Amino acid sequence: MSRFSERQHADFRALNDSIGFDQRLWRYDIAQSMAHASMLGAQRLLTEQEAGELRRALEQVADELDRHVFGFGEDDEDIHMAIERRLTEIAGPVGGKLHTARSRNDQVATDMAMFVRDRAELDVQACGALASRLVELAEAHLDWRMPGYTHLQRAQPVYLSHHLLAYCWMLLRDRSRFASVVSATGSLPLGAGALAGVNFDTDRQLVARELGFASVAENSIDAVSNRDFVLDYLAAAATCATHLSRLGAEIVLWSSEEFGFCELSDAWASGSSIMPQKKNPDAAELVRAKAPRIAGHLVAFHGVLHGLPLTYNKDMQEDKEHLFDAVDTLSLCLSAVHGMLEAITFRRERLAEAASHEFLAATDVADLLVRRGVPFRQAHGIVGGLVRVALEQGKQLSDLSASELSAVSPLLDGEFYEVLRDGAALEAKVSEGGTSLARVREQLDRARAALA
Ligand code: ARG
């Protein structure tokens, strides 16, 4: 018997069914059904025998799903209904008792929270592993000089270790963002029923303990409406993917002949179908391009939830494809970047040569004047004038003679040439968080401690 007398329209089914993508929740759905059945038994809402029969049948369903022999049926709208249908085929009418004191609304919220928790935990690991790889690379290239850039113009020299560690800190922040996503999944929705609570004396704490939730959701209305943890995951993923895209972009630039700063291993590059000499950084380019896709899922799902009246609305089924694609895309990008960084080689000479131009020490010359009492703004102008003179004469700054210098400022003496000495500008960056070797070593210690 049913309230409906007509079959659903095929196009409605196509729109409404989520079985095509929510199948991947099956392990969580089985786990929560097991916990729910145990709780119903413990609370005498089912006999121990009925609870045992349900658990045994759920085990069989899980086994069929695991071995990919589970037969999905025409009317299996989503994974929850598919599992309950098969459970009832196996266990008989007692299968129909599993949904006592439960609704698909608290059920799906629980599956999603468990899924997000697991994925965020994996991302915590992956971000940590990538940050560790960056620490190793920084250690191996500790005193390799390279130009630091602003506006993609050579700006000031830095050590390659310092540049690589910048990404390490981004990933450590990503790791803590994913850790807070894990906490955001910590309260159990199950037991909220459709929205108002249920008419039975359930034990939600027992279910929470069994499923690894730290607490139970305080408000049944909030419990079935809440998808904050999905938004939190998507936000963390979008930021992490954005970091990876910047690294991808630098690998693309650096591996070009123009820069020549690094070379990717053949395993992470492809050839051209026409130009036999080409080695293209496709993986780095694709990592660069994936970030907006994940950010798009975040924006789209904000769009789905914004203005939705409480409590559950079918709109919320749209959480899945946005989340699943973000999860899969991010995990692929994290592995790809890790793989690329396993086998990347840097070219010390090219990096050093690009860092060696004396103009990169122009700020250091200005600071020499500042130490002699010249206001910085004025010193900036004086050195700008020197740069122009050098450019006009096609010279390096150190080619300017002592008399040319004193004509510009009487304060420019022999120390001018010291400041321009190769490497002096790097070792002068002694401020906390700066690029001098001593500061980079401190940074490495802190990064290692954060990862320990
Ligand atoms: N497939 C649904 C979803 O993903 C499950 C919840 C359905 N609940 C309902 N009241 N129709 O959101």
Using brief descriptors, characterize the structure shown.
452 residues, mainly alpha, Fumarase C, Chain B, domain 1, Fumarase C, Chain A, domain 2, Ribonucleotide Reductase Protein R1, domain 1, 19 helices, 6 strands, binds arginine
Distance between the termini: 61 Å
- What would CATH call the architecture of the largest domain? Up-down Bundle
Biggest sheet architecture: 2 strands, antiparallel
Mean pLDDT value: 96
- Number of folding domains? 3
Q: Estimate the strand proportion.
A: under 5%
The Cα radius of gyration reads 31 Å
Helix content: 55-70%
Strand order of the largest sheet: 1-2
Write down the secondary-structure element order.
HHHHHHEEHEHEHHEHHEHHHHHHH
Low-confidence stretches: none
Q: How many helices does DSSP assign?
A: 19
Write a concise synopsis of the structure shown.
The protein is mostly helical. Helix content is about 60%, strand content about 5%. A hairpin with a 2-residue loop joins strand 1 and strand 2.
Provide structural commentary.
With 452 residues, the protein is mainly alpha-helical. The protein folds into 3 domains: 10-100, Orthogonal Bundle (Fumarase C, Chain B, domain 1); 105-351, Fumarase C, Chain A, domain 2 (Up-down Bundle); 354-451, Fumarase/aspartase (C-terminal domain) (Ribonucleotide Reductase Protein R1, domain 1, Orthogonal Bundle). Helix content is 62%, strand content 5%. The chain contains 19 helices and 6 strands. The strands form 3 sheets. The protein has a two-stranded antiparallel sheet. The mean pLDDT is 96. Residues 18, 22, 78, 104-105, 108, 312, 314, 316-317 line the site of arginine.
